[in-house]
Amino acid sequence: MRITENFNGNWLFRHGFDATRVGVVQEGETVRLPHSAVELPYNYFDETEYQKPFTYQKVLDWRPDFEGREVSLVFDAAMADSVVYLNGREIIAHKDGYTPFTARLTPHLKQGENLITVKIDGSENPEIPPFGGQIDYLCYAGIYRDVWLKVASPVSIANVKIETPDALSDEKTVTARIFFANPQGLAIAGTLDAKIRRKGGGDVAATSVAIDGNEATLTFSGLTGIELWDIDNPALYALSLKLTTAHGEDVLTQRFGFRTAQFTPDGFLLNGRPLKLRGLNRHQAWPHTGYAMGRRAQEKDADILKYDLACNIVRTSHYPQSKWFIERCDEIGLLCFEEIPGWQHIGGEAWQQESIANVRRMIERDWNHPSIIIWGVRINESQDNHAFYAETNRLARELDPTRQTGGVRFITNSEMLEDVYTMNDFILGQEEMPGNNRGRVVLRDRVETTGITKPIPYMITEYNGHMYPTKRFDQEQRQAEHVTRHLLILNAVAGDGDISGSTGWCMFDYNTHKDFGSGDRVCYHGVLDMYRIPKFAAYAYASQGDPKDKVVMQPVTFWARGERNIGGVLPLIILTNCDYVEVKFGEWPAKRVYPDKENYPHLAHPPVVLDLRSVTPEEFGTWGRVWREGTFTGYVDGKAVTTMTLPADPVPTTLEVVADDTALRAGEKDAVRVVVRVLDQCGNLLPYFEEPVSLVLSGPGRIIGPTEHTLKGGATGFWVEAGDEKGKLYLTASTRRLLPQSITFTVS
Fold first, then answer.
1. Contact (Cβ atoms closer than 8 angstroms) between residue 14 and residue 26
2. DSSP string covering 655-711
3. How far apart are CA 266 and CA 268, in angstroms?
4. Using one digit for the tens of pLDDT, what is the confidence trace for 13-49?
5. Measured in whole angstroms, how far is the alpha carbon of residue 609 from the centre of its chain?
6. pTM across the whole model
7. pLDDT tens-digit profile of 323-358?
8. What count of other Cβ atoms lies within 10 Å of the Cβ of residue 312?
9. How far apart are CA 635 and CA 653, in angstroms?
10. How far is Cα 734 from Cα 689, in angstroms, rounded to an integer?
């Protein structure tokens, strides 16, 4: 039977690479994968520090179960230009930093010790997408995803393509095309047994076929009692395969779901039902470690999008992302737009051939994920290139005819070779550009951006972002405008039947090259900061969720008369999914205010807006008067469901230290986020508390990044990473003015 083992531990790592020493063990630091070759500061760094070669080495001892078997290493990804050596011999080179590759060890393994050496070059090689031009994000360097030791029979299952062609019928069908690995060129004959199982157990169907050759096809028909995979009920099934030949047995299990997904000129349909797509773009990056975070952190990002931000779709900008992230999207019902690596630049012929290969590797890795509804087969925001994009589309349709293709652009009147015209529309904000005389426009008409008069499937894939970068600690008035811009576009998309949906730019702030961002190597484009701490704009998305799932009420204010220009807090946006809000200011009686359907008629949950339509100058007072406490109470179905009190005289009261979880796993590169906030006497964040916080951690683990933090906007975050040993981790956070707080983690 197949053996697949985690191969992440006990690698030796060193800066630099010497081709003459790939066959000998070199001195280095012992590390565990996923690993970042250089851990950068939060901001103000030199990104060229990782743009050079690095060496990873590990000894693999011969084992009796290797005899007569195929032994290989499977790299989930490494950035970016990788070469694998075994006992001094080059085994494989791989230039794509985002998709898996396999190093076949079998022909060169020997009894005793076998030395694996991996060269990783973080240089921005112009022959490898996305490099060759300027890039508004960092790609880092290192073996930043998991590596697996795979031991299989000489003939094994390489991949399987599962399709559900009649998912909406009462009786359903599953077809599976199975591809066999046969590196030794052996004669193949035997049987393939297959079962479809429900999540949690229980067989749905079973079949067995004789095989003869490098492929086989299975069909299950007449299936009944099947649940559809949907965003509210992500029902998953598993296809379990067992291959038996004269060369041994092999097994493989793949998850899948029954669903249909179609972009039409009248909008997007999931399982034949109209669904307005609402989501954000995501980079796979974290402070300090860059791309190198394990399973928990990947899954947490999907959870934040789904549960905290009420999104139903994410775009993997601008490359295929971790399998753990995609699998979590499958599990929780978060739709996914996945695309090939690149940003504006198209290279030469070799570059384009590598990009076409990116399409193949992306689709063949991920074609069974029900969460993925469209393939992005165009370099993000690139110019037209007919021959290149005709081929990427042709290949995608050949490999996976069940999904449509998209190509994200920002130029208008672009040639449409894809099935869906996917457009980055940054018109909102261009009224501020010198020489612009058009005035403020939220979104352009589809015909204006496409130049195509006939109805076509259309989706907005980016908006806002660099048009209005906003820090979590920016002035209240800027943050209110940031919120307004997101609301305006969400409302416009919701009210336009020509638009399938939108993914805003972007989920969280991210590190970038010197040529972009705010001069400190950070693009402050997110609705969350890099620690995934929400800005006010995050609640523009969260408030569109069903209050049955999570009640949201967030006034867009720091509640002070003198923070905004001129003074006061009006107009005051209250982001909420409540039916109405009762507002009490000082001694004035509570006043009921309803959502602003006049300005946001298409949103499921328009914001409540306090302005002179609903309150008088006397109620909120004018400059020179005493500032009063404010209380906001949200009601759903006539019942009070949430209350927030904003004091007139906030004082630092509590140092809040909250971890996403306190149970960690040893030996897995497992890291959990911790957020530190300073709160006032009513439990609200104090946005201008910016004193240092000292962190002390004892036990088998480490704090990723510095142990001294300065609060940004009253909060900061970091990740605690478990080590290789089991035990307890004790974290203490302290600041000068407040009592220290502690958390105990269990590492098991």
1. yes
2. EEEEES-SEE-TTTT-EEEEEEEEE-TTS-B-TT---EEEEEEESSEEEES-SEEE-
3. 7
4. 999 999 999 999 999 999 999 999 999 999 999 999 9
5. 32
6. 0.94
7. 999 999 999 999 999 999 999 999 999 999 999 999
8. 21
9. 28
10. 14
The residue assigned the tokens 């095309």 is: 177
Region for residue 676 given its phi and psi (left: phi exceeds 0; alpha: psi -120 to 50; beta: otherwise): beta
Statement: residue 251 has pLDDT above 80: yes
Q: Residue 745 and residue 550: Cα distance in Å, rounded?
A: 27
Structural tokens at position 83: 């070469």
* Amino acid in the structure at residue 639: K
Question: Residue 685 is encoded by which pair of tokens?
Answer: 């964040």
pLDDT above 90 for 439 = no
Decide: 532 and 307 in contact? Cβ < 8 Å.
Answer: no
Length of the chain: 748
Three-state DSSP state, 747? strand
Span 634-650, mean pLDDT?
96
What is the three-class DSSP state of 157?
A: strand
Please pick, among 462, 476, 668, 721, the residue that the annotation labels catalytic.
Answer: 462
Whether 462 is catalytic is yes
| Residue 397, burial from CB neighbour count under 10 angstroms (0-12, 13-18, 19+) | middle
Q: Annotated catalytic, 339?
A: no
What is the H or E stretch that residue 622 is in? none
For residue 446, give the DSSP letter.
H
Q: Which of 70, 124, 381, 668 is catalytic?
A: 381
Q: Within its chain, how far is the Cα of 114 from the centroid?
A: 37
